[in-house]
């Protein structure tokens, strides 16, 4: 975990606890070739070290493949998907998927991805932090991938299925996923699934607006110094922490923050620069 992920986790935890809700942890580990051994367990230990206690078991997507396959078959049976043989290199000059394989895969015998057919029309939703957001998914990205050419289920399909199956009603996450949300809403509509409420906190960035997670600051947070880092995160979320908290415990800091949480105080911006 780095400071940016702690910041987003704290925001969602505070919002859930302030409203008497449950806070769920999901390990999104479908892309196994890219997974670093032991990283998920280290993240869970770090969450606990910072006082972030989740409800129920931490769900791992790798154990839920049957759910994603069933959703994919649902869409396929209703002629809402098609197979696409286009490789990433073939599409690298395209701003959006141009529909090359909608009639049929362009290359015979090549590996194919499964894409969702996207119709024209705006998806509009009200974000609890960023306000009204609108996107014509067809115009923005075209037909989106649900299963990759290497047969790995795409993030889009997995999270939409998981959110519905787990009964998620509110999602608080980084604004780097704001433009992905209309695509998730579109898929929810295709699968006749409920739409959660969304809130996108600003992404923490360097002074040049580069994403913190990809910068020199993306070092692991230090559980040995959990309290001062947590208070810094609270401040970036719009909470004015009293000085007495610096001499208290993690539990006292969380209790105070939960009692004073108002999502309206989170900066209505796409990014917040972190200073040294």
Helix content: 25-40%
**Helix/strand structural class:** alpha/beta
**Strand percentage, roughly?**
15-25%
Shape: elongated
- Estimated radius of gyration: 20 Å
Please count the beta strands (DSSP E, at least 2 residues each).
11
Q: How would a crystallographer describe the biggest sheet?
A: 3 strands, antiparallel
At the fold tier of CATH, the topology name is: Rossmann fold
In the CATH scheme, the class would be: Alpha Beta
Flag low-confidence runs.
Answer: none
Number of helices: 8
What is the CATH architecture annotation? 3-Layer(aba) Sandwich
From the N-terminal CA to the C-terminal CA, the straight-line distance is: 19 Å
The total number of structural domains is: 1
What's the pLDDT, averaged over the residues? 93
* SSE run: HEHEHEEEEHEHEHEEHHE
Report the CATH superfamily: HUPs
Could you characterize what this model shows?
The chain is α/β, with parallel strands linked by helices and 276 residues long. The protein has a single domain, classed as HUPs (Rossmann fold), CATH 3.40.50.620. The protein has helices spanning 3-18, 39-49, 65-77, 137-140, 155-165, 181-190, 226-236, 250-259, and strands spanning 26-27, 59-60, 81-84, 113-116, 122-127, 131-136, 144-147, 170-174, 197-201, 203-205, 271-273. Strands 3-4-7 form a three-stranded antiparallel β-sheet. Helix 1 (3-18) packs across helix 8 (250-259). It is elongated and about 65 Å long.
């Amino acid at each position: 975990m780095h400071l940016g992920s702690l910041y987003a986790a704290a925001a969602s935890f505070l919002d859930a606890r302030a409203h008497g809700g449950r806070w769920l942890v999901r390990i999104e580990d479908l892309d196994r070739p890219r997974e670093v051994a032991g990283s998920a367990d280290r993240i869970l230990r770090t969450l606990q070290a910072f006082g972030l206690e989740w409800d129920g078991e931490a769900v791992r997507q790798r154990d839920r493949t049957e759910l994603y396959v069933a959703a994919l078959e649902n869409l396929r049976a209703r002629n809402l998907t098609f197979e696409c043989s286009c490789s990433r290199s073939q599409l690298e000059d395209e701003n959006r998927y141009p529909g090359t394989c909608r009639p049929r895969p362009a290359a015979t015998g090549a590996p194919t991805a499964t894409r969702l057919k996207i119709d024209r029309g705006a998806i509009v939703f009200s974000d609890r932090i960023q306000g009204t957001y609108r996107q014509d998914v067809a115009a923005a990205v075209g037909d989106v991938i649900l299963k990759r050419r290497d047969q790995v289920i795409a993030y889009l399909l997995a999270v939409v299925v998981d959110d519905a199956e787990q009964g998620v009603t509110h999602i608080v996450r980084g604004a780097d996923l704001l433009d992905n949300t209309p695509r998730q809403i579109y898929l929810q509509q295709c699968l006749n699934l409920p739409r959660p409420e969304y809130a996108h906190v600003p992404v923490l960035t360097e002074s040049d607006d580069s994403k913190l997670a990809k910068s020199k600051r993306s070092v692991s947070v230090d559980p040995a110094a959990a309290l001062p880092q947590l208070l810094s995160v609270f401040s970036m979320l719009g909470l004015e922490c009293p000085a007495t908290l610096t001499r208290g415990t993690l539990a006292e800091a969380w209790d105070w923050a939960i009692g004073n949480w108002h999502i309206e105080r989170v900066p209505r911006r796409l990014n917040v620069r972190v200073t040294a």
